[in-house]
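Progress narrative, Year 2. Work on L-ascorbate oxidase from Cucumis sativus advanced from sequence curation to structure prediction during this period.
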Amino acid sequence: MASPLQSTRYLLILLSFVFFLLQSQTAESRTLNYKWEVKSELKSPDCFKKVTLTINGRSPGPTIYAHQGDTVIVELKNSLFTENVAIHWHGIRQIGTPWSDGTEGVTQCPILPGETFRYQFVVDRPGTYLYHAHYGMQREDGLYGSIVVWVPEGQTEPFSYDLDRNLILTDWYHKSSHEHATGLATPGSGFNWVGEPDSLLIQGRGRFNCSILGSSSGTCNSSSTECVLHPLTVVPGKTYRLRVSSLTSLSALSFQIEGHTMTVVEADGHYVEPFQVNNLFIYSGETYSVLIKADQDPSRNYWITTNVVSRSRTTPPGLAIFNYYPNHQSRLPPTTPPAPPAWNDVTPRLAQSQAIKARQGFIHTPPKAADKVIVLLNTQNTVNGRRRWSLNNVSFNMPHTPYLIALKHNLLHTFSQEKPPTGYDFKNYDIFNPAPNPEATVSDAIYRLDFNSTVDIILQNANMMSPNNSETHPWHLHGHDFWVLGYGEGKFDLYKDPSKYNLENPIMKNTVPLHPYGWTALRFVADNPGVWAFHCHIDAHFFMGMGVVFEEGIERVGKLPTSIMGCGESKRFLRP
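Result:
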């Protein structure tokens, strides 16, 4: 029989072994399982009651928290009564799982009412990401959320902080996306633009002035608990990593925290050479991490504000509370919200874009030259009496059979086989005036890229159909990160401007702004087999044709799951 001393030693050895196993398991990748249900519910995020799309009763939906290398499985049940749905995992490259990108018409058929779809993918890089509806214009009805990916346990990042917080910024309409889509699709005089948002939301909450509607309105209740301003509670003296994301359907935003300086350290999952801002400009689809120290007078709270930029400002500011513990979360600051930057001043916005560089020690050097250059002229046009957005005078339409299925199963007759234009009349086109011939064409043709080739995309902005008007367009690429080689004002010069590219420390991103009357140059390597959308992240603009699709290495894509099929000519692959 073992002595008490021997028993104690055995117990210590056993505990040490168990501790070792636990450490080993936590260092390994995990599989995270989520069960989500999409419903339509009456909600009042800005005090005005409207039908909102929710996930498990929430908008924003649940945040996914994971470590680099984890596998995420989401079983998504569509409990909408009459609507299809699809969810895109914004910023997740879907390496090896292109069918889980969640882009209806490109990588999958939509999820029908009553059906459950399984998304499965690996989060291969740490950073701040998003998810949102990618069917019609559903994103603007509240179907969105955050993805936070930490570095593997035991690893560190090149900056330190005490606590991690997360905010999503959105704009909000009282009309539904169905009303907006109907107005946008109506030809001639019946065309109805979506207009400016009714409110700006911070983490799903805002304040609409119900008095505008009159006392008889039963749809707006300023005392509703659903529209209490969101509190971000901080402990005095602590440093916070604040992950700030935008999923606006229309608006470019400025973001401020009264009396506090922000240090930008991450953009779209890549470390940034740190720089400080008092105001952060952020565009739909972008994510940033900023460091903030709670170093102001702790006896009061402070305003968090968002404001529209790049459009005439008619929407009131979005408000939240930077709450110093132990002050009450609902205690309003004693000051008025800080004044926003001028909505039409492009200079500071362009300067911030140009200031974002890759952090030293984390630079991924781009290839020195491109194999293919595609210049995309962004213009507003008409097609058969309908107002559209076009690229090189071609407005994009989605096919009935998703591209991934059509290409993998050789159903090439289901979409146009013409080659889309790779440029425009550089010499003669005047970007500062409306197009002399506003009529464009519609096509569902795609760009077929050589696998592993290096591709440059030059986004060129221009005047809209109305004089003296050029809008900001945030462009998002699925399946990839790209190097941001540069920004410029005016017309891009194919012969001179490439010499100005930043090839030393360009930041990598998945979403980038195209500033009014300017250009943005990107570079990526077509090394992710699949079919990937590249489009303006403004809901109405993509709905009106502002996008393209890239195919690369389709022969390397594995067997497609039948769960993505069931629409167009893919019905033939479903067995009863």
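The domain at 372-573 is CATH 2.60.40.420 (Immunoglobulin-like). Helices lie at 4-27, 177-185, 346-355, 403-408, 539-543.
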